[in-house]
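Minutes, project check-in

Agenda point 3 was the complex the collaborators sent over. CS summarized: two entities, 566 residues total, and the question is how they sit relative to each other. Sequences were read into the notes so everyone works from the same version.
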Amino acid sequence: MKLVDLFDHFLIDLDGVVYVGDKPTVGAEETLKALRQFGKRLIFLTNDPRGSSRDYSEKLKKMNIQAGPDDVITSGMAIAHYIKEHYQLNQKKAYVVGSPALKEEIEQIGIKLSQGEDGRKADFVIVGGHSEFHYEELKYATLAIRNGAHFFATNRDPVFPAPEGLVPGTGAILASIEVASGKKAITAGKPEPIMFEVAKKVLSSQERTAIIGDRLDTDIVGGKRVGIKTILVLSGSTKQDEIPKSEIKPDYVINDLRDLLKEQAPITKPQVSNKSETPNSKP
Amino acid sequence: MKLVDLFDHFLIDLDGVVYVGDKPTVGAEETLKALRQFGKRLIFLTNDPRGSSRDYSEKLKKMNIQAGPDDVITSGMAIAHYIKEHYQLNQKKAYVVGSPALKEEIEQIGIKLSQGEDGRKADFVIVGGHSEFHYEELKYATLAIRNGAHFFATNRDPVFPAPEGLVPGTGAILASIEVASGKKAITAGKPEPIMFEVAKKVLSSQERTAIIGDRLDTDIVGGKRVGIKTILVLSGSTKQDEIPKSEIKPDYVINDLRDLLKEQAPITKPQVSNKSETPNSKP
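CS then shared the predicted structure for the full assembly.
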Protein backbone atom coordinates (compact mmCIF):
# COMPACT_ATOMS: atom_id res chain seq x y z
CA MET A 1 0.00 0.00 0.00
CA LYS A 2 1.15 3.52 -0.77
CA LEU A 3 0.83 6.27 1.81
CA VAL A 4 -0.67 8.54 -0.84
CA ASP A 5 -3.69 6.23 -1.16
CA LEU A 6 -4.82 6.97 2.39
CA PHE A 7 -5.56 10.64 1.71
CA ASP A 8 -7.38 12.96 -0.65
CA HIS A 9 -6.08 16.26 0.75
CA PHE A 10 -2.58 17.25 1.71
CA LEU A 11 -1.62 20.35 3.71
CA ILE A 12 2.03 20.80 2.84
CA ASP A 13 4.50 22.95 4.73
CA LEU A 14 6.86 24.80 2.40
CA ASP A 15 10.32 25.45 3.90
CA GLY A 16 12.00 22.14 4.73
CA VAL A 17 9.44 20.08 2.84
CA VAL A 18 9.11 21.47 -0.70
CA TYR A 19 12.27 23.52 -0.61
CA VAL A 20 15.10 24.45 1.73
CA GLY A 21 15.80 28.13 1.24
CA ASP A 22 15.82 28.50 -2.54
CA LYS A 23 16.54 24.85 -3.39
CA PRO A 24 13.77 22.32 -4.07
CA THR A 25 13.97 19.16 -1.94
CA VAL A 26 14.73 15.78 -3.52
CA GLY A 27 11.76 14.56 -5.55
CA ALA A 28 9.52 17.53 -4.74
CA GLU A 29 8.82 18.46 -8.37
CA GLU A 30 7.89 14.97 -9.62
CA THR A 31 6.05 13.88 -6.47
CA LEU A 32 3.81 16.94 -6.34
CA LYS A 33 3.11 16.56 -10.06
CA ALA A 34 2.10 12.93 -9.49
CA LEU A 35 -0.14 13.86 -6.55
CA ARG A 36 -1.99 16.32 -8.74
CA GLN A 37 -2.37 13.66 -11.46
CA PHE A 38 -3.96 11.37 -8.88
CA GLY A 39 -6.47 14.15 -8.24
CA LYS A 40 -5.20 15.04 -4.78
CA ARG A 41 -5.92 18.53 -3.43
CA LEU A 42 -2.72 20.24 -2.32
CA ILE A 43 -2.65 23.27 -0.02
CA PHE A 44 0.67 24.81 0.88
CA LEU A 45 1.13 26.36 4.32
CA THR A 46 3.86 28.68 5.50
CA ASN A 47 4.41 30.51 8.79
CA ASP A 48 6.68 32.98 7.01
CA PRO A 49 4.77 36.29 6.93
CA ARG A 50 7.20 38.15 4.69
CA GLY A 51 5.66 37.17 1.36
CA SER A 52 2.14 37.06 -0.09
CA SER A 53 0.41 33.95 -1.47
CA ARG A 54 1.30 35.28 -4.90
CA ASP A 55 4.99 35.52 -3.95
CA TYR A 56 5.07 31.89 -2.83
CA SER A 57 3.09 30.76 -5.87
CA GLU A 58 5.72 32.39 -8.07
CA LYS A 59 8.58 30.94 -6.07
CA LEU A 60 7.06 27.46 -6.57
CA LYS A 61 6.55 28.04 -10.29
CA LYS A 62 10.26 28.78 -10.66
CA MET A 63 10.86 25.29 -9.25
CA ASN A 64 8.42 23.81 -11.81
CA ILE A 65 5.81 23.27 -9.13
CA GLN A 66 2.37 24.47 -10.20
CA ALA A 67 0.49 26.22 -7.39
CA GLY A 68 -1.82 29.20 -7.74
CA PRO A 69 -2.08 31.89 -5.06
CA ASP A 70 -5.29 30.17 -3.87
CA ASP A 71 -3.29 27.05 -3.09
CA VAL A 72 -1.00 28.86 -0.64
CA ILE A 73 -1.96 29.95 2.88
CA THR A 74 0.46 32.23 4.71
CA SER A 75 0.32 33.08 8.40
CA GLY A 76 -0.40 36.68 7.39
CA MET A 77 -3.41 35.62 5.36
CA ALA A 78 -4.59 33.39 8.22
CA ILE A 79 -4.49 36.14 10.85
CA ALA A 80 -6.23 38.54 8.44
CA HIS A 81 -9.05 35.97 7.94
CA TYR A 82 -9.33 35.52 11.68
CA ILE A 83 -9.62 39.23 12.38
CA LYS A 84 -12.19 39.69 9.64
CA GLU A 85 -14.31 36.90 11.04
CA HIS A 86 -14.21 37.91 14.70
CA TYR A 87 -14.25 41.71 14.78
CA GLN A 88 -16.28 44.61 13.55
CA LEU A 89 -13.92 46.49 11.25
CA ASN A 90 -15.98 49.49 10.21
CA GLN A 91 -14.10 52.77 10.83
CA LYS A 92 -11.31 50.84 12.56
CA LYS A 93 -7.59 51.32 12.12
CA ALA A 94 -4.73 48.85 12.26
CA TYR A 95 -1.06 49.39 13.02
CA VAL A 96 0.94 46.71 11.21
CA VAL A 97 4.49 45.95 12.31
CA GLY A 98 5.49 43.82 9.35
CA SER A 99 6.29 43.34 5.69
CA PRO A 100 4.55 45.10 2.79
CA ALA A 101 2.85 41.76 2.02
CA LEU A 102 1.35 41.63 5.52
CA LYS A 103 0.19 45.24 5.28
CA GLU A 104 -1.55 44.44 2.01
CA GLU A 105 -3.19 41.34 3.52
CA ILE A 106 -4.62 43.44 6.37
CA GLU A 107 -5.78 46.24 4.09
CA GLN A 108 -7.61 43.71 1.93
CA ILE A 109 -9.99 42.78 4.75
CA GLY A 110 -11.12 46.40 4.88
CA ILE A 111 -9.16 48.03 7.70
CA LYS A 112 -7.31 51.29 7.17
CA LEU A 113 -3.66 51.28 8.17
CA SER A 114 -2.19 53.74 10.65
CA GLN A 115 1.23 55.10 9.79
CA GLY A 116 4.01 56.26 12.13
CA GLU A 117 2.93 58.14 15.24
CA ASP A 118 -0.74 57.57 14.41
CA GLY A 119 -0.08 53.93 15.23
CA ARG A 120 -0.53 54.64 18.93
CA LYS A 121 -4.23 55.33 18.36
CA ALA A 122 -4.86 52.13 16.36
CA ASP A 123 -7.67 49.69 17.25
CA PHE A 124 -5.67 46.66 16.11
CA VAL A 125 -1.96 45.89 16.27
CA ILE A 126 -0.74 43.10 13.97
CA VAL A 127 2.86 41.89 14.17
CA GLY A 128 4.81 39.89 11.59
CA GLY A 129 8.59 39.52 11.38
CA HIS A 130 10.33 41.86 8.97
CA SER A 131 13.82 43.17 8.49
CA GLU A 132 12.92 46.85 8.93
CA PHE A 133 11.73 46.49 12.52
CA HIS A 134 12.83 49.45 14.67
CA TYR A 135 12.21 51.10 18.05
CA GLU A 136 9.50 53.47 16.78
CA GLU A 137 7.37 50.47 15.76
CA LEU A 138 7.99 48.83 19.12
CA LYS A 139 6.96 52.06 20.85
CA TYR A 140 3.79 52.81 18.89
CA ALA A 141 2.64 49.18 19.06
CA THR A 142 3.20 49.22 22.84
CA LEU A 143 1.32 52.51 23.33
CA ALA A 144 -1.61 51.27 21.19
CA ILE A 145 -1.91 47.95 23.08
CA ARG A 146 -1.59 49.67 26.48
CA ASN A 147 -4.35 51.95 25.20
CA GLY A 148 -6.62 48.95 24.51
CA ALA A 149 -5.85 47.88 20.94
CA HIS A 150 -6.51 44.22 20.04
CA PHE A 151 -3.21 42.43 19.60
CA PHE A 152 -2.32 39.79 16.98
CA ALA A 153 0.72 38.24 15.39
CA THR A 154 1.23 36.00 12.39
CA ASN A 155 3.27 33.36 14.27
CA ARG A 156 5.77 32.74 17.08
CA ASP A 157 8.77 31.18 15.33
CA PRO A 158 11.76 32.66 17.21
CA VAL A 159 14.22 32.23 14.33
CA PHE A 160 14.36 31.13 10.72
CA PRO A 161 17.27 29.80 8.65
CA ALA A 162 19.10 32.31 6.47
CA PRO A 163 22.42 32.05 4.65
CA GLU A 164 24.07 33.73 7.68
CA GLY A 165 22.62 31.26 10.20
CA LEU A 166 19.47 31.27 12.33
CA VAL A 167 18.19 34.86 12.32
CA PRO A 168 15.39 36.45 14.40
CA GLY A 169 11.84 35.72 13.27
CA THR A 170 8.40 37.03 14.19
CA GLY A 171 8.57 35.40 17.64
CA ALA A 172 11.59 37.50 18.64
CA ILE A 173 10.05 40.80 17.53
CA LEU A 174 6.76 39.80 19.12
CA ALA A 175 8.49 39.10 22.46
CA SER A 176 9.64 42.72 22.71
CA ILE A 177 6.10 44.02 22.19
CA GLU A 178 4.58 41.48 24.58
CA VAL A 179 7.07 42.37 27.33
CA ALA A 180 6.53 46.12 26.89
CA SER A 181 2.74 45.93 26.63
CA GLY A 182 2.24 43.25 29.27
CA LYS A 183 -0.20 41.48 26.91
CA LYS A 184 -0.09 38.26 24.85
CA ALA A 185 -0.94 38.31 21.15
CA ILE A 186 -3.34 35.94 19.41
CA THR A 187 -1.25 34.13 16.78
CA ALA A 188 -2.28 32.27 13.63
CA GLY A 189 0.72 30.29 12.44
CA LYS A 190 1.31 26.59 13.08
CA PRO A 191 0.92 25.04 15.65
CA GLU A 192 -2.02 27.36 16.37
CA PRO A 193 -5.34 26.12 14.99
CA ILE A 194 -6.19 29.36 13.14
CA MET A 195 -4.10 28.51 10.08
CA PHE A 196 -5.58 25.01 9.89
CA GLU A 197 -9.10 26.42 10.22
CA VAL A 198 -8.49 28.61 7.17
CA ALA A 199 -7.19 25.58 5.27
CA LYS A 200 -10.26 23.55 6.27
CA LYS A 201 -12.55 26.17 4.77
CA VAL A 202 -10.80 25.79 1.43
CA LEU A 203 -11.28 22.02 1.51
CA SER A 204 -14.60 20.37 0.82
CA SER A 205 -14.12 18.06 3.80
CA GLN A 206 -11.60 17.39 6.52
CA GLU A 207 -11.85 13.63 5.91
CA ARG A 208 -8.77 11.90 4.55
CA THR A 209 -6.59 14.97 5.14
CA ALA A 210 -2.95 14.88 6.22
CA ILE A 211 -0.37 17.53 6.99
CA ILE A 212 3.17 16.99 5.74
CA GLY A 213 5.75 18.98 7.70
CA ASP A 214 9.38 18.96 8.77
CA ARG A 215 8.92 20.30 12.32
CA LEU A 216 7.49 18.43 15.27
CA ASP A 217 6.69 21.56 17.31
CA THR A 218 4.71 23.38 14.62
CA ASP A 219 3.49 21.14 11.77
CA ILE A 220 2.96 17.93 13.72
CA VAL A 221 1.65 19.51 16.94
CA GLY A 222 -0.68 21.70 14.88
CA GLY A 223 -2.04 18.78 12.87
CA LYS A 224 -2.69 16.78 16.02
CA ARG A 225 -4.52 19.69 17.65
CA VAL A 226 -7.02 19.88 14.81
CA GLY A 227 -7.36 16.10 14.49
CA ILE A 228 -5.83 15.37 11.10
CA LYS A 229 -3.16 12.78 10.31
CA THR A 230 0.45 13.93 10.49
CA ILE A 231 3.39 13.01 8.25
CA LEU A 232 6.86 14.07 9.34
CA VAL A 233 9.36 14.39 6.49
CA LEU A 234 13.06 14.30 7.29
CA SER A 235 14.14 16.67 4.49
CA GLY A 236 14.15 19.76 6.74
CA SER A 237 14.94 20.64 10.32
CA THR A 238 14.12 17.36 12.13
CA LYS A 239 16.60 14.48 12.14
CA GLN A 240 15.68 10.79 12.55
CA ASP A 241 17.30 10.49 15.99
CA GLU A 242 15.22 13.35 17.41
CA ILE A 243 11.98 11.45 16.95
CA PRO A 244 12.30 8.91 19.78
CA LYS A 245 13.45 11.71 22.12
CA SER A 246 10.37 13.84 21.48
CA GLU A 247 7.00 13.53 23.17
CA ILE A 248 5.40 14.58 19.90
CA LYS A 249 4.65 11.51 17.82
CA PRO A 250 3.79 11.92 14.13
CA ASP A 251 1.51 9.27 12.57
CA TYR A 252 4.00 8.64 9.76
CA VAL A 253 7.66 9.44 9.15
CA ILE A 254 9.12 9.59 5.62
CA ASN A 255 12.58 10.43 4.35
CA ASP A 256 11.47 12.70 1.52
CA LEU A 257 8.34 13.38 -0.49
CA ARG A 258 9.04 10.48 -2.90
CA ASP A 259 8.22 8.02 -0.10
CA LEU A 260 4.54 9.02 -0.43
CA LEU A 261 4.39 7.14 -3.73
CA LYS A 262 6.46 4.06 -2.93
CA GLU A 263 4.71 0.70 -2.94
CA GLN A 264 7.09 -0.93 -0.49
CA ALA A 265 6.33 1.15 2.58
CA PRO A 266 9.57 2.84 3.66
CA ILE A 267 7.41 4.56 6.17
CA THR A 268 8.32 4.24 9.80
CA LYS A 269 5.17 4.45 11.84
CA PRO A 270 6.11 3.11 15.27
CA GLN A 271 4.02 5.76 16.99
CA VAL A 272 0.81 4.73 15.29
CA SER A 273 1.15 1.07 16.21
CA ASN A 274 2.10 2.00 19.78
CA LYS A 275 -0.93 4.20 20.04
CA SER A 276 -3.40 1.70 18.64
CA GLU A 277 -1.98 -1.05 20.85
CA THR A 278 -2.51 0.87 24.04
CA PRO A 279 -6.32 0.78 23.98
CA ASN A 280 -6.32 -2.87 22.83
CA SER A 281 -4.07 -3.93 25.64
CA LYS A 282 -6.59 -2.67 28.17
CA PRO A 283 -8.21 -5.47 30.12
CA MET B 1 13.94 60.07 66.58
CA LYS B 2 14.61 60.96 62.97
CA LEU B 3 14.98 58.27 60.32
CA VAL B 4 18.09 60.02 59.05
CA ASP B 5 19.88 59.34 62.35
CA LEU B 6 19.82 55.57 61.76
CA PHE B 7 22.09 55.71 58.71
CA ASP B 8 25.40 57.06 57.49
CA HIS B 9 25.05 56.03 53.82
CA PHE B 10 22.12 56.38 51.50
CA LEU B 11 21.78 54.70 48.11
CA ILE B 12 19.17 56.83 46.37
CA ASP B 13 17.19 55.86 43.28
CA LEU B 14 16.77 58.79 40.89
CA ASP B 15 13.54 58.64 38.86
CA GLY B 16 10.52 58.70 41.18
CA VAL B 17 12.61 59.65 44.23
CA VAL B 18 14.72 62.70 43.40
CA TYR B 19 12.80 63.67 40.30
CA VAL B 20 9.90 62.49 38.15
CA GLY B 21 10.92 62.97 34.54
CA ASP B 22 12.44 66.46 34.53
CA LYS B 23 10.72 67.74 37.68
CA PRO B 24 12.34 67.49 41.13
CA THR B 25 10.17 65.81 43.78
CA VAL B 26 8.82 67.77 46.74
CA GLY B 27 11.60 68.62 49.18
CA ALA B 28 14.35 66.85 47.22
CA GLU B 29 16.63 69.89 46.95
CA GLU B 30 16.55 70.92 50.64
CA THR B 31 16.52 67.38 52.06
CA LEU B 32 19.55 66.23 50.06
CA LYS B 33 21.37 69.43 51.02
CA ALA B 34 20.61 68.77 54.70
CA LEU B 35 21.78 65.16 54.43
CA ARG B 36 25.10 66.34 53.06
CA GLN B 37 25.39 68.89 55.88
CA PHE B 38 24.91 66.06 58.39
CA GLY B 39 27.88 64.33 56.72
CA LYS B 40 25.88 61.54 55.11
CA ARG B 41 27.33 59.82 52.05
CA LEU B 42 24.86 59.86 49.16
CA ILE B 43 25.13 57.58 46.12
CA PHE B 44 22.58 57.88 43.37
CA LEU B 45 21.52 54.76 41.46
CA THR B 46 19.67 54.53 38.17
CA ASN B 47 18.67 51.59 35.98
CA ASP B 48 18.35 53.93 33.01
CA PRO B 49 21.27 53.08 30.68
CA ARG B 50 20.75 55.94 28.26
CA GLY B 51 22.92 58.50 30.03
CA SER B 52 26.38 58.52 31.59
CA SER B 53 27.17 59.33 35.23
CA ARG B 54 28.22 62.76 33.98
CA ASP B 55 24.83 63.26 32.27
CA TYR B 56 22.94 62.49 35.49
CA SER B 57 25.30 64.63 37.56
CA GLU B 58 24.52 67.54 35.26
CA LYS B 59 20.81 66.87 35.33
CA LEU B 60 20.93 66.98 39.15
CA LYS B 61 22.96 70.19 39.17
CA LYS B 62 20.25 71.87 37.10
CA MET B 63 17.87 71.03 39.96
CA ASN B 64 20.32 72.58 42.47
CA ILE B 65 21.34 69.14 43.73
CA GLN B 66 25.09 68.76 44.03
CA ALA B 67 26.32 65.34 42.86
CA GLY B 68 29.54 64.63 41.01
CA PRO B 69 29.81 61.86 38.39
CA ASP B 70 31.44 59.67 41.08
CA ASP B 71 28.26 59.92 43.14
CA VAL B 72 26.11 58.38 40.38
CA ILE B 73 26.04 54.69 39.44
CA THR B 74 24.18 53.77 36.25
CA SER B 75 23.26 50.23 35.19
CA GLY B 76 25.61 50.67 32.22
CA MET B 77 28.52 51.49 34.52
CA ALA B 78 27.62 48.55 36.77
CA ILE B 79 27.59 45.97 33.95
CA ALA B 80 30.87 47.40 32.61
CA HIS B 81 32.48 46.97 36.07
CA TYR B 82 31.15 43.44 36.28
CA ILE B 83 32.55 42.43 32.89
CA LYS B 84 35.92 43.99 33.67
CA GLU B 85 36.15 42.07 36.92
CA HIS B 86 35.07 38.66 35.63
CA TYR B 87 36.51 38.32 32.11
CA GLN B 88 39.79 38.50 30.32
CA LEU B 89 39.36 41.39 27.88
CA ASN B 90 42.63 41.37 25.98
CA GLN B 91 42.04 41.28 22.19
CA LYS B 92 38.31 40.87 22.79
CA LYS B 93 35.49 42.65 20.97
CA ALA B 94 32.08 43.76 22.17
CA TYR B 95 28.90 44.41 20.23
CA VAL B 96 26.86 47.00 22.12
CA VAL B 97 23.15 47.38 21.40
CA GLY B 98 22.60 50.63 23.25
CA SER B 99 23.10 54.34 23.72
CA PRO B 100 26.35 56.25 22.99
CA ALA B 101 26.79 56.53 26.79
CA LEU B 102 26.71 52.74 27.17
CA LYS B 103 29.15 52.29 24.29
CA GLU B 104 31.54 54.72 25.96
CA GLU B 105 31.19 52.91 29.29
CA ILE B 106 32.14 49.60 27.66
CA GLU B 107 35.03 51.08 25.69
CA GLN B 108 36.44 52.56 28.90
CA ILE B 109 37.04 49.12 30.40
CA GLY B 110 39.32 48.33 27.47
CA ILE B 111 37.23 46.34 24.98
CA LYS B 112 37.11 47.31 21.33
CA LEU B 113 33.63 47.78 19.90
CA SER B 114 32.38 45.88 16.84
CA GLN B 115 30.33 47.88 14.39
CA GLY B 116 27.53 46.69 12.08
CA GLU B 117 27.98 43.29 10.47
CA ASP B 118 31.21 42.71 12.43
CA GLY B 119 28.96 42.44 15.48
CA ARG B 120 28.24 38.80 14.68
CA LYS B 121 31.84 37.88 15.46
CA ALA B 122 31.91 39.71 18.83
CA ASP B 123 33.04 37.98 22.06
CA PHE B 124 30.62 39.99 24.21
CA VAL B 125 27.12 41.29 23.53
CA ILE B 126 25.89 44.06 25.84
CA VAL B 127 22.31 45.31 25.59
CA GLY B 128 20.85 48.55 26.94
CA GLY B 129 17.60 50.19 25.88
CA HIS B 130 17.91 52.93 23.28
CA SER B 131 15.62 54.61 20.81
CA GLU B 132 17.62 53.62 17.71
CA PHE B 133 17.14 49.88 18.18
CA HIS B 134 16.53 48.11 14.85
CA TYR B 135 16.42 44.66 13.25
CA GLU B 136 20.08 44.66 12.18
CA GLU B 137 21.13 44.99 15.83
CA LEU B 138 18.74 42.22 16.82
CA LYS B 139 20.19 40.02 14.07
CA TYR B 140 23.89 40.59 14.74
CA ALA B 141 23.42 40.23 18.51
CA THR B 142 21.56 36.94 17.93
CA LEU B 143 24.21 35.58 15.55
CA ALA B 144 27.02 36.53 17.97
CA ILE B 145 25.32 34.88 20.98
CA ARG B 146 24.44 31.76 18.98
CA ASN B 147 28.12 31.75 18.02
CA GLY B 148 29.13 31.70 21.70
CA ALA B 149 29.43 35.39 22.73
CA HIS B 150 28.95 36.20 26.43
CA PHE B 151 25.63 37.96 26.89
CA PHE B 152 24.86 40.89 29.22
CA ALA B 153 22.29 43.61 29.65
CA THR B 154 22.12 46.71 31.79
CA ASN B 155 18.71 45.92 33.31
CA ARG B 156 15.31 44.29 32.71
CA ASP B 157 12.82 47.15 33.17
CA PRO B 158 10.15 46.44 30.52
CA VAL B 159 8.98 50.06 30.25
CA PHE B 160 9.79 53.51 31.54
CA PRO B 161 7.59 56.60 31.87
CA ALA B 162 7.80 59.17 29.06
CA PRO B 163 5.56 62.12 28.23
CA GLU B 164 3.67 59.83 25.79
CA GLY B 165 3.04 57.11 28.39
CA LEU B 166 4.91 53.96 29.37
CA VAL B 167 7.34 53.24 26.53
CA PRO B 168 9.55 50.17 25.91
CA GLY B 169 12.70 49.92 28.02
CA THR B 170 15.77 47.69 28.01
CA GLY B 171 13.73 44.67 29.14
CA ALA B 172 11.58 44.75 25.99
CA ILE B 173 14.54 44.99 23.62
CA LEU B 174 16.38 42.34 25.63
CA ALA B 175 13.39 39.95 25.33
CA SER B 176 13.69 39.91 21.54
CA ILE B 177 17.38 38.97 21.70
CA GLU B 178 16.81 36.37 24.41
CA VAL B 179 14.01 34.71 22.42
CA ALA B 180 16.06 34.66 19.19
CA SER B 181 19.29 33.48 20.80
CA GLY B 182 17.72 31.02 23.23
CA LYS B 183 20.00 32.40 25.98
CA LYS B 184 19.46 34.56 29.11
CA ALA B 185 21.58 37.66 29.69
CA ILE B 186 23.36 38.51 32.94
CA THR B 187 21.89 41.84 34.07
CA ALA B 188 23.23 44.50 36.44
CA GLY B 189 20.36 46.85 37.25
CA LYS B 190 18.22 46.72 40.39
CA PRO B 191 17.01 44.29 41.75
CA GLU B 192 20.13 42.38 40.65
CA PRO B 193 22.97 42.51 43.17
CA ILE B 194 25.62 43.69 40.66
CA MET B 195 24.66 47.35 40.93
CA PHE B 196 24.65 47.20 44.73
CA GLU B 197 28.05 45.50 44.74
CA VAL B 198 29.47 48.39 42.74
CA ALA B 199 27.93 50.84 45.21
CA LYS B 200 29.39 48.91 48.16
CA LYS B 201 32.88 49.27 46.74
CA VAL B 202 32.48 53.04 46.74
CA LEU B 203 31.41 53.05 50.38
CA SER B 204 33.86 52.55 53.24
CA SER B 205 31.47 50.12 54.93
CA GLN B 206 28.06 48.57 54.34
CA GLU B 207 27.05 49.27 57.96
CA ARG B 208 24.27 51.79 58.53
CA THR B 209 23.38 51.85 54.82
CA ALA B 210 19.87 52.22 53.42
CA ILE B 211 18.42 52.31 49.94
CA ILE B 212 15.67 54.82 49.20
CA GLY B 213 13.52 53.84 46.22
CA ASP B 214 10.04 54.19 44.76
CA ARG B 215 9.65 50.65 43.39
CA LEU B 216 9.06 47.50 45.40
CA ASP B 217 10.20 45.12 42.62
CA THR B 218 13.56 46.77 41.94
CA ASP B 219 14.78 49.09 44.71
CA ILE B 220 13.28 47.29 47.71
CA VAL B 221 13.81 43.72 46.46
CA GLY B 222 17.38 44.61 45.49
CA GLY B 223 18.16 46.16 48.89
CA LYS B 224 16.79 43.13 50.71
CA ARG B 225 18.85 40.76 48.57
CA VAL B 226 22.10 42.44 49.57
CA GLY B 227 21.06 42.84 53.21
CA ILE B 228 20.71 46.60 53.62
CA LYS B 229 17.74 48.50 55.07
CA THR B 230 15.05 49.60 52.64
CA ILE B 231 13.04 52.82 52.58
CA LEU B 232 10.10 53.05 50.17
CA VAL B 233 9.16 56.59 49.18
CA LEU B 234 5.68 57.25 47.79
CA SER B 235 6.71 60.08 45.44
CA GLY B 236 7.05 57.79 42.41
CA SER B 237 5.41 54.72 40.97
CA THR B 238 4.18 52.95 44.14
CA LYS B 239 0.98 54.05 45.87
CA GLN B 240 0.18 53.56 49.58
CA ASP B 241 -2.56 51.00 48.93
CA GLU B 242 -0.22 48.73 46.96
CA ILE B 243 1.96 48.06 49.99
CA PRO B 244 -0.33 45.72 51.95
CA LYS B 245 -1.08 43.79 48.72
CA SER B 246 2.58 43.10 47.98
CA GLU B 247 4.71 40.31 49.41
CA ILE B 248 7.66 42.68 49.31
CA LYS B 249 7.88 44.53 52.62
CA PRO B 250 10.12 47.59 52.90
CA ASP B 251 11.60 48.36 56.32
CA TYR B 252 10.27 51.93 56.23
CA VAL B 253 7.71 53.81 54.16
CA ILE B 254 7.82 57.60 53.79
CA ASN B 255 5.69 60.01 51.80
CA ASP B 256 8.53 62.08 50.38
CA LEU B 257 12.20 62.73 51.12
CA ARG B 258 11.36 65.42 53.74
CA ASP B 259 10.09 62.67 56.07
CA LEU B 260 13.71 61.56 56.59
CA LEU B 261 14.32 64.66 58.67
CA LYS B 262 11.09 64.88 60.65
CA GLU B 263 11.30 64.45 64.43
CA GLN B 264 7.77 63.15 64.81
CA ALA B 265 8.10 59.88 62.93
CA PRO B 266 5.64 59.99 60.03
CA ILE B 267 7.21 56.74 59.03
CA THR B 268 4.96 53.74 58.64
CA LYS B 269 6.88 50.60 59.42
CA PRO B 270 4.22 47.94 60.00
CA GLN B 271 6.26 45.34 58.12
CA VAL B 272 9.21 45.59 60.43
CA SER B 273 7.14 45.11 63.57
CA ASN B 274 5.22 42.21 61.95
CA LYS B 275 8.47 40.53 61.03
CA SER B 276 10.06 40.83 64.44
CA GLU B 277 6.87 39.58 66.10
CA THR B 278 6.73 36.37 64.11
CA PRO B 279 9.77 34.71 65.69
CA ASN B 280 8.74 35.92 69.18
CA SER B 281 5.28 34.46 68.82
CA LYS B 282 6.72 31.00 68.30
CA PRO B 283 6.08 28.67 71.21
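Noted in discussion: Chain A has two domains: 3-47+191-261, 89-187.
Follow-up: revisit at the next meeting once the mutant set is ready.
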